[in-house]
Amino acid sequence: MPSLQTAHSTEPLIRIENLCKSYSLQDADGGTITNQVLFDINLAIYPGEFVAIMGQSGSGKSTLMNILGCLDTPTGGSYRLSDRNVATLSGNELARIRNQNIGFVFQGFNLLKRMTALDNVATPLLYAGIGREQSRKRALEQLRQTGLENFAMHHPNQLSGGQQQRVAISRALINRPPLILADEPTGNLDTQTSAEIMALFEQLNREQGITIVLITHENDIAAYAKRLIRLKDGHVVLDQTRESAS
Amino acid sequence: MNFTAIVGEALRALRQNRLRTGLTMLGMIIGVAAVVLMLSIGQGARTKINETIAEMGSNLFLVVPGATSSGGFSFGSGSVRTLTINDSYAVAELSSVRATAPVTSGTVQLNYAAKNWSTIVTGTTPDYFVVGKWKMESGTAFTESDLRSAARVAVLGSITAKNLFGDEDPAGKTVRIANRPFLVVGVLMAKGQSLTGRDQDDNVFIPITTSERQITGNQFPGSIRYMLVQGNSDDEMDLAELEITQLLRQRHRLATGKDNDFTVRNLTAIADVATNAAKIMSIVLGAIASVSLLVGGIGIMNIMLVSVTECTREIVIRMAIGANQRAILTQFLLEAVMICIMGGIIGLVLGIGGAWLVSQFADMLIVITLGMVGLAFLFSSAVGIFFGFYPAKKAAALKPVDALRYE
Question: What ipTM was predicted for this assembly?
């Protein structure tokens, strides 16, 4: 939407142009079936935005999320993150971007089961090349900010769903990334806990200016975001900014 | 991620799967223990042979009389008494020869007090003890003057001494050899078996002159059964053989074109054969043991492959939070290498323990060298890297996309 882009003076954090994604499968006869999931997506997301991407199952929202998170590569078009063309980066550089620039929050929490909450939060720092002691110190500080310092030495299976998701958010925040990608973050949580987690996202967006891209299919969760993007069958069918959102 | 952090992650994974780690390690433990045990047994056999060769004396030739034949019927080696004591003395004068010892022998009965013992009596010269590197347990060897006067003096081998005298010191006692009294002047230190398996310690030595005149008698006076010749040095063995042959041909007045009536045998060559046999034995033992190490390695690869499949989720989570391929590869490779090295150390200890047990119960010489320890170590880490690489590579090549979203 041209009107939206002119509203911002800074460069976009995420700029997607004519992005396509298709998967090739071998059928039983040895022929190739091409399944296109995303068609000519154009999108610009600016620093400090809180965006919800909605759509039904099969609308391509998870594929878009994987591409945004540098976990997958597009088959056409371009994706620039912080003005770097992601398609041209090597595996190591992508790993570094996932480590430094993006924090992931998943529906299933995706904590490392065999580690304490503290070590889970500290692991991205280890991959950033920071020593174990220093990493643990910073991880404890991060858990304190999310109100989980008393659970630092617990393993994920000793924590409630809400606590696990808070650990996951702490892990996403530990390297101070400009962007958080949340894939159905409240999908496994009850209403009360969902509200708490969403309040935490809102707070992070408001107070620290972290850009949040949220994928959900629930309207009341999407209502926390300031901007709504709706996908249908691999096309963007709606992109609107909500003035009323706080 | 720095290296110590990756080591920490690998150790954590090993600790958390103790049973799996232990069972995988077992393959390595058995493999390394088998290699160490087999190598130490092989090395022990070689050392034993080398010791025997060294004790036998170095640079030795055995000169035996030739064969004779009558009417197309060969009597075999030593069937004529062509070698004499004087031949032996003449050979000793050669520049390439250090010393010689002529030998005659026969079987006799020995008596001391109420005990008696049948053994081989060897008539020789005092040089025999020098050439054969014999050491004295007590007393001394007989002398040149004993030789000249055909004195009734005897030197006993350790087994003969033990059988006749028990714990008594035989030196200075009188023993009866073929019913004639002999003064025991010395007892030899035990040497054990020769390369051919003959016991060298069941023996009695007397001056060759005494033997010839009083004990064995002689059909052809002055002839000997064989002579031992010690060459001057390792390098001159060929020269010595040539000189001995020429001198003996000359002394025996053999015309050109006529066969030698004696044979010169280089004992070092015999020793080489024995050494080679031992070497082949240790190679074969090592090869057999290596198979178990190989099987252990394949076991590791198997388990690591299962482990990679099991940990797919963990691996892609790590990738999502910033692990690059190298960090994943290193972590899994280190897991395999650590299993191998830990298994290697335990196997080494067990192998050395097993070797010790073998040496205690089977009365075999076992030698463990630092090189073997290093080899076991090198081998086990090589197995870890070789068999750990493919699973680690597979782990690093995982794509994070598919596994992340669903439980």
Answer: 0.87
